[in-house]
Amino acid sequence: xAQEVKNDIKKALQVNTIPLIAIMTAVTTVLTMLVxxxxxxxxxxxxxxxxxxxxxxxFGPWVGGIIGGLGPALSDLISGYPQWAIFxxxxxxxxAVLVGLLVKKFNPANIIIGSVIAGVWxxxxxxxxxxxxxxxxxxxxxxxxxxxxxxxGLIVGFALFxxxxxxxxxxxxxxxxxxxxxx
Length: 183
Prior knowledge:
Shape: globular
Number of strands: 2
Radius of gyration: 16 Å
Strand order of the largest sheet: 1-2
Oligomer: single chain
């Protein structure tokens, strides 16, 4: 198992994926910063989940995890929320890795189940992070907003992936759905 993961990571992180990671991280950072709804515990709701889900579907767990962790964490740093950056990097990065590992077949039920499990991780992760930064009382109040952000991100991320996949069939070769281009 460990050797298989090591091989998967090595295959995913090749020289030709570095520009892809850089571009997608920049897009994710900008999209995360585009919509910012402040929350009571000095955080904000945003569209990061859209790109986290899209990246995991399109590029698999390891590339998606880097994009999903770095993009929103950079947004935190740039937007004046540096106290959240390390939490965001870990929580959002693991969310993308979980989606990439859990969603192996391109069918709506599989995508929804894997994505919801990863989204529950994110909501739980931000509850713990919010508890550490601001106390568990205020963090409890953030669960509904984070759940809404996750649900919107799942819907929009899946729709975006579906549209891009139809417009650019070779995209499926980059991810882990095992679909031949054009299917």
